[in-house]
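Title: Prediction job returns without error message
Component: structure pipeline
Severity: low
Priority: P3
Assignee: unassigned

Description:
Job completed but the reporter wants confirmation the result is attached to the right record. Sequence as submitted:
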Amino acid sequence: MSQRKASQKVNGQKTQAAKGVKELTAKAADSKTKKATVTDKAAVKRKAAEDQLTKIFEERLSKHHDELRWLYMELYENDSMFAELCDHMYQFYLERNEELKKLDIDREKDKEWYKKNDLLGMMFYIDNFAGNMKGVESKLDYIEQSNVNYIHLMPFLDTPKGRSDGGYAVSDFRKVQEKLGSMEDLDNLTAACHKKGINVCMDFVMNHTSEDHEWAKKARQGNGEYMSRYFFFDNEEIPAQYERTVPQVFPTTAPGNFTWLEEIGHYVMTTFYPYQWDLNYGNPRVFNDMMYHFLYLANRGIDIIRIDAVPYIWKELGTPCRNLKQVHTIVRMMRMISEIICPSVLLLGEVVMEPEKVVPYFGTVEKPECHMLYNVTTMATTWHTVATRNVKLLKRQLDIVNGLPKEYVFLNYLRCHDDIGWGLDYGTLQMEGMEERAHKKYLNDYFQGYAGDSNSRGELYNADPITGDARFCGTTASMCGIEKAGFEQDKKAMDLAVRMDLMLHAYMFMQSGIPVLYSGDEIGQVNDYTYKEDPDKAADSRYIHRGAMNWKLAENRTDPGTVEGKIFQGLKRLEQIRKTEKVFMTKADTWTIDTWDDAVLCIGRYFEGEKLIGLFNFSESDKTAWINEADGEYVEMLSGNRMQPVNVLVPAYGFYYMKKIS
């Protein structure tokens, strides 16, 4: 090849190569431009989403900012701590996952979603119910079959072994007890519940921490910053002043309100047990950090946060340290904080007082506090009615509740994880010739099976030989006589006990509010005495009704020939009626009707043109309800029989749901 041709070939190759490089460069540039465009679009989209989130947060904050700041400054007079609170609130809002944010928006549009007739609760200890959180997740089908769509997971946060008070002595608010699982397991459980339309409730124990909490450990070392988060005193003078006005919660098992710490030479306030140290909410650092724990837990998918021991939160020398006005300030701030960050979350207050006295914890229509409260006194009065076969006091109690504004939502129950305290209306009982001490003794004797032709079984808790006061522990089934009838193999007695059990649940469903079962009640589970074999539980008789769920017996729930089947299927029918009949809406008109028989209670409900009459016989004998509601045709909803609510014969421990049809 000539030099000239070779040169031309090389130049041609260079030209071709240059052309290829140019094309590749152009393609790369075009690709880079496209990528930049895509990136820019993603960034714009991301920025728009962030702006929308910020807008929602700012809109919610603007509704409450001025009042929240005013209340905060009234308590603490600390601008920098309030600014810190707002900054952290925004961060918790951003961290809330998309599903929960969507739920927030949906429930903001339907603020009264929990006031309808479709909520039924069940409470249980996770380990007793299903071992751990993964076990609970595996039992969601059973929960659905029980018509339950609201589960209350009893305390599951980290607590010291043997000093947990049933989980109410929290050592770490962001750690699940290892035997129960992890925070990841909690996330998975709440997500699985939400897919099935099941709401999740948990306890937020904000009055105190365990002595093993990080703050308490540092306080015990003499660290002043952490000592200021509790109530410490280096001599007995001020504790003695507190003791003059502050009642004791557990005078027999944990007398007094202070514990002496020998190693640091200080007293610390311990209203409940010596290992539960009361938090000082006069310190803004305590309020802020506890609110951060509150929001952290809400972001785990919790729908209902039960505030434990609400009335005790604020302490002040010279007062009973109960129900002080600052408590309402704190709960009101919690309500506003939740409405800003997680408006789908409800606040449930544990306030153990008569309904008319707990009303302040609902707040006002303009400035609400708790969404829901427990109907404690009605529960105790129900069992008084069982023991006396006299509905007068219960009727009066229901009249009081029915007379309250319909915006107020109560949780109704026959029993819970706790004992039954006899906080009755003794002023009214005294007019009937019943003295408080003698009547409390009768009630405790009756439910132990010692008096009044009782078939109940159970044990006392915190009995005080000086005052004669005591509380009672037992499952619903055992208190109704199922345990005794089973032990004695008495079929007739068992049929009557099962009927009584179902009657009490039917009556509970007729009350205004949300009914809640304790797990095991749906199959008639009886007392568990094995707690006495566990040294960590033996001293606390409340464990008699906190027994492990008997899944072997639960298999009988579809067999109508078994106790479990009779109760489960009977409750299922009642639950279906409640969910399909609009008269069970929380806002329905509810009233009691005179029956002219001390043993028979009559409740009426009316809503949007529909009327239902309920009759409940609290005695072991057939009774006639001398009522006259002859205003049309009625049908008894369980039997389908036509009947008139006029002079109705109600069988022993029987009940009727009579719906007006014309």
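Comment from assignee: result matches the submitted record. The chain has 22 helices and 24 strands.
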